[in-house]
Every structure is written in C-alpha cells, then in structure tokens.
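Long-time lurker, first post. I've been practising inverse folding by hand and with some scripts of my own, and I keep getting stuck on stretches where the structure tokens seem ambiguous. Below is the full token string for one chain I'm working on. Before anyone asks, I'm not after the true native sequence, just a reasonable design that respects the backbone. If someone could post their per-position residues I'd love to compare against what I wrote down in my notebook.
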C-alpha cells in the first residue's frame, strides 16, 4: 500500500471547507472518533479561500500532509446541490497527485451538511465518492442504521447531515464520531491484512 511513500502510522486526515461552522463541527466529531482508536490520530485541515487564486487552489503543505496520511475524509457543505466552490478548487488541485497515483489504496470517506433534510446532500457525497474513486482509494460507507440517536437522515453512501440554525444535532455528531472510528479501524485492518 502506498509504496515508495512515507505514510505516517495510522494518521487520518480530515479535510473540509466550512463557511459558517457546521461542517467544521462535523469534522471535529470525525477527528474525535479517529483519535479514540488505539494507535490512530487525526489531523484536520480547513480549506482556505486565501489559497485559491483565479479559481486555482495551491497549498503544497496541505497536499503533503494528505499524502502522508493513511486515510482521508473529505467534507463540504452542500451548496446548490453540490460541493462548495472552495472544495471543488481543492479537488481540482489534487489532479497532479492523481496523475502520480499518490493516494492509491488509502481509505476515504465523505461528509456534508445541508440546511434542508433533503437538500441534495447525496449529490455532494456522490461527487466526493467519485473523487476518491479517481484516486483509487477504498471508500468507507456509513454502517449505522437510522435512528433518532445516530444516522438521523439514514444515508449509507457517506455522512449526510442537516444544520438547523447553524447547529448540528447530537445524532449527527455521534454519526461523525462513529465514522471516524470506522475509517481509522479499517485503515489499520487494511495495512495489517
Ligand atoms: C450558497 C449556498 C448554497 C446552499 N445550497 C444548499 C443546498 O443546495 N442544499 C441544502 O440543503 N442547503 C444548502 N445551503 C445551506 C448550507 O448547506 C448550510 O447552511 C450548511 O450548514 C453550511 O455549512 P457551513 O456551516 O459549514 O458553512 C446553501 C447555503 C449557501 C450559502
């Protein structure tokens, strides 16, 4: 796995864009889940609009940090039925890494927040899933059955949530933590198998 590159011992990166903070809250929940797994640790990176010039994202430090990680969890708010422009600029910038197959066989997952319970968040997750597939990554789905306590909106493809007046529900937060645990645990299994 990731031959020829230095991959840090079960480091999982959580990279996301957030304008008003709810996607950031969810990123925090995922990182908390990762950190609760023995031997795993999370690094969180917020995509900054300051790294985008004329639509192009550039930050070599961020790209190196992601490449050194064993797994990457991608997050964006749902904007107009898709990822935010800032996330797309970042995703486009990963094309150089794609060409060199730098992220081949890492684990991946995705999360999004919308303002509506059914505000096309699935389109956002499907885009993130496609990005991970292009990089040859192993997609980790949500395994929790829907209830009022976890996976409130009942999606499996990725973590789909809704912010109400800028706040996530406890159930959304718990689903984030569970996804972090699952990504870190599967990343560990993949290298030891
Ligand atoms: C430009 C824009 C477009 C949006 N489009 C959608 C949408 O298509 N579906 C939806 O459910 N919510 C939509 N929202 C609501 C955001 O997804 C929601 O407020 C989310 O919590 C923002 O994430 P953040 O707090 O991390 O910035 C939109 C918000 C903005 C500003």
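-- Answer (accepted) --
I ran through it position by position. Result:
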């Amino acid at each position: 796995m990731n031959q020829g590159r230095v991959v840090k011992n079960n480091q999982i990166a959580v990279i996301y864009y957030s304008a008003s903070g709810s996607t950031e809250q969810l990123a925090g929940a995922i990182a908390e889940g990762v950190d609760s797994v023995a031997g795993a640790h999370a690094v969180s990176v917020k995509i900054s609009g300051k790294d985008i010039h004329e639509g192009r994202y550039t930050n070599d430090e961020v790209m190196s940090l992601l490449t050194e990680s064993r797994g990457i969890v991608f997050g964006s708010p749902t904007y107009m039925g898709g990822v935010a422009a800032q996330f797309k600029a970042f995703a486009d910038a990963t094309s150089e890494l794609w060409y060199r197959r730098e992220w081949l066989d890492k684990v991946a997952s995705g999360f999004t927040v919308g303002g509506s319970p059914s505000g096309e968040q699935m389109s956002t997750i499907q885009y993130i899933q496609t990005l991970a597939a292009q990089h040859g990554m192993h997609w980790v789905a949500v395994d929790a059955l829907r209830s009022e306590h976890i996976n409130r909106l009942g999606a499996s493809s990725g973590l789909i949530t809704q912010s109400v007046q800028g706040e996530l529900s406890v159930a959304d937060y718990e689903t984030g933590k569970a996804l972090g645990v699952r990504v870190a645990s599967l990343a560990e299994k993949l290298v030891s198998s």
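A couple of notes from the structure itself: The chain has one domain: 11-192. The beta strands are 11-16, 41-46, 52-53, 56-57, 71-79, 82-83, 107-114, 138-139, 159-162. Happy to go over any region you disagree with.
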